[in-house]
């Protein structure tokens, strides 16, 4: 055994000098030698753990048995033998032997001086001690939702939103952020990470803290896998009922961003204090600015502000001459500090939330926001019409003009304006909408509370419309109950019929519906002879109550475009508008190889099927309902393709994606900007594996092969010959133009445009 210990220590000493420093844009991070290689280069999984640079980060390093060669991973092996329930599994189990103690992620480096702690076989000789680890976990952790991040690096960081119940992971959403610390769309990440989301989620679900630490990383995505594991471990640390007495912070490089996205801060902590600060300006796209582009003033500001942050942290005062930059940097540091705190006391659960302001007969305001550490970090404002569909640029000119400055004001505030004053806080010319947006943001924040506020509904006036735009309700809610209802009817042109324009029969119906809804609510008995309006009124009341609810829905509101499977004549498209998970508008079309709506040039059966399917989809109203709609005889393939398109639109609208993948499986097409090239992409297991190239004439028809130029043939051969039915296609990830001559380069540039369009059509 002494020889084994000696060999282990020797191996550790030999490997230690491998660590070195890399230089990314404006970065100087201490990392492991192999982890410096980009994951895009598919570095060997066993070589990438960043944790080897710092003993504190060992959760990453202990993913495989080989990691036990480093004594730093086992500083507290004897603290609880419960972690070693199977002697054969001890290489993994020693990562976190104690569920209730400070995890390896926060271990003090000095602990590595005692590798002999792993030399006692007697420590693993009592499997009875691990008979009921779950029972121990249940007593240690507080049920709830916890968000935590791994260590930061030049591309951002990993994170995890974990629901812990009875000491186990009940649900989990894995995050891969940009430098702006907002979860990236999966396809914006490097390709080796695409499959890792699903694999790691499956491996982590149902695990205890110790079990999660022992999960294997996904080959080709080791750094991100370990980042997720570290995030999960930190989430468990935050869930401890009794926080560690000897640690305040997670150890490592912790990242923070100001709400306006001006600066990123990397704050380095040990268990008890801040040890280093680095400040990086961000571009408008949320990436790190290239250090080479720094102006002299920027360089001076960074130097001055960094020293102040290191000395005073979030209590730092603005530096004279750099007040605006100082404020942003201090906010970014505060964000990093919150991400680093084991006992993060934010009252809100990080994530996406949406809500409405006070409704009027002419419409209502809506806000979609993202919250992190109790601060507003992203917001989008909408002005809806009386049909509760976003009016976009067709809204009142002053309201359209007010959108951007109100967005900036809310972000600068980092929240809603608590004491809103229309003269001070409203945007001139749109004070009512400004108030509505602020109110919507305030309500969205309330939805995010860790401890829900009392009551099922917000108080105020809320609008509701059935999904076929027949009835508008303005519903007053007070003390959790409906206290008043105003019923309005839509005319055939989609406009509200004024009360004084209603026919006597319509007035009677409105009166009966109003009385019935107030008395019976959504259980309204149909008005005799007015079954359609009665059904619409009940649907409108359900919509209004959902808009007033304090619970965030499953789907985002808005219009989402998706496609069914394509073939060499074109594809089918669905533009689906959702509100509260219901289809409130759908536009179906059959497009050719040039992606242009064929209209009356489409097959007669398809032309006939589209209006029938539109009516049926609206009547079905839901994701599941559409899939049960019967195909139209003579247009079965197009019917099924359009149903698939609607389902994919719902997939794009998910607040929390059930299947976090880069692409939908299927066959998708895209056309170049000039409509001369079409590329058909087949996606399997969420990865583009096959591509076919078509050249189009002016009418959008496919050219026959003998009419193709040598350059066109060369490009077609290159793209199609590099297809694979298994692995990622050569041009399936960040395709770029190619060619042996100018003619080939010109054609390939158009082909790449078509590839990108096809991938966009396939994208989640």
Describe this structure in words.
Helix 10 (397-413) packs across helix 11 and helix 17 (710-721) crosses helix 18 (742-762). Helices cover 32% and strands 19% of the residues. The chain has helices spanning 2-15, 58-61, 90-93, 133-140, 194-204, 209-213, 222-239, 296-312, 323-340, 397-413, 431-447, 504-520, 531-548, 604-620, 623-627, 636-653, 710-721, 742-762, and strands at residues 20-21, 30-31, 144-149, 157-165, 168-177, 252-257, 263-269, 274-281, 351-356, 364-372, 375-384, 460-465, 471-478, 481-489, 558-563, 571-579, 582-591, 666-671, 677-684, 687-695. The strands form seven sheets. Strands 3-4-5 form a three-stranded antiparallel sheet. Strands 6-7-8 form a three-stranded antiparallel sheet. The protein has a three-stranded antiparallel sheet with strand order 9-10-11. Strand 7 and strand 8 (274-281) form a beta hairpin. It is α+β, with helices and mostly antiparallel strands. The protein is built from 18 helices and 20 strands. Residues 1-38 and 40-137 have low confidence and may be disordered.
Quick recap:
The chain has 764 residues and is of the alpha+beta class. The protein contains 18 helices and 20 strands.
Topology of this protein?
Blueprint: H1 2-15, E1 20-21, E2 30-31, H2 58-61, H3 90-93, H4 133-140, E3 144-149, E4 157-165, E5 168-177, H5 194-204, H6 209-213, H7 222-239, E6 252-257, E7 263-269, E8 274-281, H8 296-312, H9 323-340, E9 351-356, E10 364-372, E11 375-384, H10 397-413, H11 431-447, E12 460-465, E13 471-478, E14 481-489, H12 504-520, H13 531-548, E15 558-563, E16 571-579, E17 582-591, H14 604-620, H15 623-627, H16 636-653, E18 666-671, E19 677-684, E20 687-695, H17 710-721, H18 742-762
Antiparallel strand pairs: 1-2, 3-4, 4-5, 6-7, 7-8, 9-10, 10-11, 12-13, 13-14, 15-16, 16-17, 18-19, 19-20
Helix pairs in contact: 10-11, 17-18
